[in-house]
Specification:
The chain contains ten helices and ten strands. By secondary structure, the protein is of the alpha+beta class. It is rod-shaped and about 150 Å long.
Amino acid sequence: MKSDKMKIKQYLSAIAASVLMPILIVLAIFPVRDWFTTTDIVMLQLLWVTLVALRSNRRVAAITTLVSVACTDWFFVTPYFTFHIENIEYMVTFAVMLIVGLVISQLAGQLTRKISDIKRHASNTSCLYELAKGLNGLDEIDRQRGYFQTAIEQHLQIQLDWLQLIPAQQGLPINYFAIGEVDSRWGGFTASQQLDEEQSAFLNTAISVLYQAHENTQLRQQSAAISVQAELERAKNALLRSLSHDLRTPLATIMGASSMLADEKIVLTEAMAAEQARNIYEQSKILNEHFDKVMELSRVNKMGEDLQWQAISLQTLISEAQARRQQLLFDFQLVTQISEQDSCEGDITLLEIALANMFENASRYGDGHADLSFNSQQHTQQVDYQLCITNQLATLPPTSTDQGVGLGSVICDVVAKFHHGSFTLDINEQQQSATACLVWSKLND
């Protein structure tokens, strides 16, 4: 309905410019026609033809030229109010006027068409630029497809329908544009109306931009998956190395002590037998702790599959983490600068487990005192959090390549990875100090 009204309005405007205005011009001049020569009147008519040619199309300008010649002949050439011409020089004047008017119409029409083409090409280029920029800012294929559909519908003033898969027996529908001509898994779009050659070329170009965005997104996802797999392999190797060392040492002690007790040829005093029994008991406790760590690591991996983000009070987080190692941290002193207003976001259970392991390592290898610091930074796309524990070392932790890194550190690293972060443990042998930092990020929705 709106399109029909626009067409009627354009039609009436063309009639007014090509027919009514030339008549009004000659009627305005007619009372003072003695003041003008025929050439002057022809020039005034050509001036209006030029204006019409610049503002309209060449067809309307050509009609304006014919009407202007007819009006000039009717009102200003004797005998008046007829199309009869007695003087042959008027024939030349009108012929020149007609030729000049048509040439002006042709040239103005070509200029108008070229300007229109340039504007249309500039608009298409701008749309493709904004489309590429918008698509590259999205990391999901479905969101890219929705953004593309909205942008193209607004630009071409058409409606696009999404088709995921087309059965082979149905064939391709009319006005179907596939995202990938070779790879059909991404489907395509169908236009609600017949498109001309230029619109089809633009839509094909835009779809090639969408295809490249899909390809880039898939490559990024594959790269991320490879990185995650490499990180899992690294964590698995660290876990196996830790288990290999941490389990082998107590097992060797238990086997050696038990073999001495079981060997009838070896005569042991009561004190020696009691000492070997204590060794077996102590190493069994160590083994039990390692198995608890393994179970805790398994629990962390299970919980990480369904991460629950929530706002957490730091004081609550610290107190709950200390409660998890209450017996071990009985004489452990922690100095913090945490206020009641300090908070962070994350999975409170996983962060408690990671912080409890950090406290345990600081207590086991430290001098019983540690400083805890917290820092947060707000960015446009995310919020970064950092928890660091620094303590003086009582004994240096193992550093040889065949020794374990401790399952507590592995657990902290896994928790950090689930929270888009990392865990680091820096040992300063000169200052006899250690700093463990848990860094993670909350992505803004």
